[in-house]
Specification:
- With 295 residues, the protein is α/β, with parallel strands linked by helices.
- The protein has a single domain, classed as Aldolase class I (TIM Barrel, Alpha-Beta Barrel), CATH 3.20.20.70.
- It is 43% helix and 16% strand.
- It contains eleven helices and eight strands.
- α1 packs parallel to α2, α2 runs parallel beside α3 and α5 runs parallel beside α6.
- The chain starts with 5 loop residues before the first strand and ends in an 18-residue tail after the last helix.
Length: 295
Amino acid sequence: MDDRVRIFDTTLRDGEQSPGASMNVEEKIAVARQLTKLGVDVIEAGFAFSSPGDFDSVRRIALEVEGPVICSLARCKPEDIDAAAGALRGAPRARIHTFISTSEIHLKHQFRLTRSEALERAVEMVKRARGHVDDVEFSAMDASRTEPAYLYEMIEAVIEAGAGTVNIPDTVGYALPDQFGALIKGIRDNVRNIDRAVISVHCHNDLGLAVANSLAAVVNGARQVECTINGIGERAGNASLEEIVMILRTRKDVLGLETGIATEQIYPASRLVSGITGIMVQPNKAIVGDNAFAH
């Protein structure tokens, strides 16, 4: 199996959903340029359909920032897919990241869809996205609370439709590491065409386990981790990029995995994001806190 873990940075999309963390277009471009120096594989630049400002941010970053794949989020809706494609047009490396929920509680109460309807929509929208770009990622929102057999069926169908990355989110920060690792292993063991896609994970930190869950997933075969600088994000935040990267680097003796991150750029990225958003880094924060290397 590939020993390279891809780093998908969503500071500009999920991170910006932190209360009070909104950034203007120029600030987003500055962060995207620093993320390029950092060496992230994918920059999720925004949610193009959500507002004219987000569309403009994705568009500017797609045209002005070279190196990483530039990605826009899109719901499994035609207007979202088309807006993402429009914002990404002209980017040397573009990805549309589309999602729909797969858990029973979300399908029943939030989406008001049956399982078969959600699967049909997911397949249709992945195909639509592939009509615009070669690189499509699909997320099964609330995957950690989804019945595994249905999750396997959904993943197999979207890979067949053209998704090259399948993302398994712990959307509400509900999973435990052993459970989440077993979920990833189950996907590897039960999805017949999984060799045609990269397994990604996107973990929230509601119980303080986002990094632990992400690592459990990586140990079980995930090869992309979605994370943010300083772990910012809605509610309790996302998996912290700096912690994921430095664990993989420091404990390569055990994990045998690596990233393409230029680790000397972690601290400048941390301070840039903190300065722009006004969200201070707690002094005892691992890796980038002021006290992290103080005695």
